Amino acid sequence: MKSLRQYLPWILYFVFFLGVLAVNPGAHYTHLLARVIIFGLYAVAFNLLFGRTGLVSFGHALFYGIGAYITGMLAKASGPDLFLLYILLGGIGAAIVSVFIGLLSLRLTGMFFTMLTLAFAQLAWGITFKLYNFTGGDDGIQAIPKPAYLTGPVWKYYFFSFVVVTICVFVIWRISRSSFGMVLKGIRQNPGRITFMGLNVYKNQLVAYIISAFFTAIAGGLYAGLDGSIHPDMLHWPTSGNAILMCTIGGMNTFFGPVIGAAILTGLEEIVGKYTEYWSFSIGVVVLVVVLLFPRGLLGIKWPWGRKSTTEEKETEVACNTGD
Amino acid sequence: MKRRGLFLIVVVMLFCSFTVAYGAETIKIGALYTMTGRGGQYGKDSEVAIKMAVDEVNAKGLPGGAKLEVIITDDKNPQYAVSVAKRYISDEKVKFLFGIISSAIGLAVTEVSKEQKVIFIGTDHAATDLTANKFQKYYFRSANNTFQSMMAGAMYLKDEVKGWKKIAYIGPDYAYGRDQWMELKWGLDKLGVKYQVVGEYWPKLYEPDYTSYITAIMKAAPDILVSGFWGGDTVSFIKQAKPYKLFEKMKYFHVDAGGNYEALAALGGDMPAGIILSARHHNNWPDTQANKAYVQKFYKAAGRYPSYAAEGAYVGIHMIAEAIRKVGNANDTEALVKAMEGMKVQCPEDPSGFTSYIDPKTHQIVQVQAIGVTVKNAKFPPAKYMLGNLKVYPADKLWPSFEYIDYLTKQKGK
């Protein structure tokens, strides 16, 4: 029973995202679901840092943008044949950048860490915006080609995204459940205790930061292929804010919560945006309701008929990076 | 016998009503505009103009009694706009994509148009790229691009401004600002004008404080200061530069968006007299019945006078209607493309004896450009100054310029 419960989210994940292909909801909704699944990876990757390690980065758009720009620019410059490799290179590029940013910013704690990550992301956004001969400036880059096997009906790219995202999410899931993942959880709950255990908090946080950046960039690279265009908004702070919103709405202490958050945020934008230009108001209301009534997020709601809380969940969490 | 006759009449009536209902299809147009924030006024004005044009078209009638219907969504950013454009095509079954203020969004949506083979009428974004190096056959534009404005500007500087040599530029540091300066210099070089650039200033878009730029410009002392701002940035810059007497020490030259009614209205009595401006439409020029009627109709509908964005949207709807009339339906996209190529479109901004037309090779509307100086005129409140002494530049001298398209393609790629 335990193992079934453990794998239930995965079963639902496969049933939903593959079932959609069988139902064939039409080109637009398949495109929308492709966005959901890509944003889902972005949110899950971000949550490795946010929900798991307790680090509030407000600059993850930087890595999302790096992934998108490396993939898009390489595909545009040298053709789409090695598209998958370019996505991977986007991830590697973001991981390299994250080493430098992580080394600097993780020395700070709490709000200072958050602000520094925001500063780096805004710096990258500014450079992308201004280097218009190289990046296309605010116009961005369009007509990014895709390999022949991904062109045509949108379900092809949806399926491709599904496979890539599933592999990435599975790897993050395994990491979260590994001893390293437990250390990250320990860092979030009580960094002092982790230090007393002889483990290096800073080093582990840095590794988590790099892994998170890598997978975030994979999501960015996938998006570059989905729309065939990239633009500096991808590196702008609202993109970072979206990751926090997705995790908060879905449940930052749950593994699949961010995917639910991504679906809600994308769905609201789409459905409410049809009827009013003030669609962002609805997002504000949802966030307000979730934060006030379900602070653990939608997937973190404790239903009366649900399983009893484990000792682990009852632990008092000592927030990491409080500056103490 | 009588009953049978009655039955026959009922059948015929039912058949006729079915035929009429079937023939009277609704042709959907999917529009995207910035409806909130700093560019929101452009979207709101376009919305009013679209309604005016749709009412006119539907009143006049389309083949088969078809009616136009326009859906408008706030475009927000390229990523969202692309998603909405795809939804328009797959779910709403729109026959045309329409609108868009930002060139960045226009460039992203033109890819959707190309991929899905759906006609896209750009009504306000001005990046020359869309009808030049990024041209695709399903894209048409119903307003001037920045090259047309800047080429007219180069002619104005050559012929109307005497004894100048030193020139400086200030414009927002992104593609729109950079492109205008590149285009003006190209035009001046092409016309053989000798000049010396004494400064280039690139404040960020929506810069709140221009003091440091103003003092630097004053120090450089150009004869001509070319400006590439739009919207609120134009207003802020002029307000901040006025106390420094910048407009008395050099000629301020701002010909793509400087003369937009939005800026004239916002500045009111603070607008300096004698500065050189232009825009893609003027409320007080040309003094034709068509322009007067358009401006007054807009005023009646909205309670304010239109910015130039409105005219692009108004013309765009009439372009679509005309193409449908020529083809006879809105289902044959390839025929509609052919119908629009070379089409003559009577626009409010057309002076007597001239009709704008769509260049068949680039799908860019070809229009005259009128450049003038600010003079006191309170006929369009809250503006206290409007443009006067207008010099009109012939449309065919401004576009197409295949030499520039080649140059742009080399600079920016396809």
In short:
The complex is a heterodimer of chains A (324) and B (414). With 324 residues, chain A is mostly helical. Chain A has 14 helices and no strands.
Can you walk me through this structure?
The complex is a heterodimer of chains A (324) and B (414). In chain A, helix 11 (237-250) crosses helix 12 (257-275). Chain A has helices at 2-23, 27-52, 61-78, 83-105, 110-130, 132-135, 154-177, 179-189, 191-196, 201-227, 237-250, 257-275, 280-293, 311-314. Chain A has a domain at 26-236. By secondary structure, chain A is mostly helical. The termini of chain A are far apart. The longest helix of chain A is centred in the middle third of the chain and has 27 residues, at 201-227. Chain B has 414 residues and is of the alpha/beta class. Chain B folds into 2 domains: 22-144 and 287-366, Response regulator (Rossmann fold, 3-Layer(aba) Sandwich); 147-279 and 369-412, Rossmann fold (3-Layer(aba) Sandwich). Chain B has 14 helices and 15 strands. The A-B interface holds A 26-28, 31-32, 35, 129-130, 132, 136-140, 142-143, 223, 227-229, 231, 233-234, 269-270, 273-274, 277-279 and B 35-36, 73-74, 76-80, 82-84, 86-87, 89-91, 102-104, 107-108, 110-111, 114-115, 127, 129, 134, 173-176, 178, 205, 414.
- The number of E-state strands of chain A comes to 0
Estimate what percentage of residues of chain A fall within beta strands: under 5%
Would you report the number of β strands of chain B? 15
Q: Helicity range of the residues of chain A?
A: over 70%
Low-confidence stretches of chain B: 14-22
- Kindly state the mean pLDDT of chain A as a whole number? 87
Major sheet of chain B: size, sense and barrel closure? 7 strands, mixed
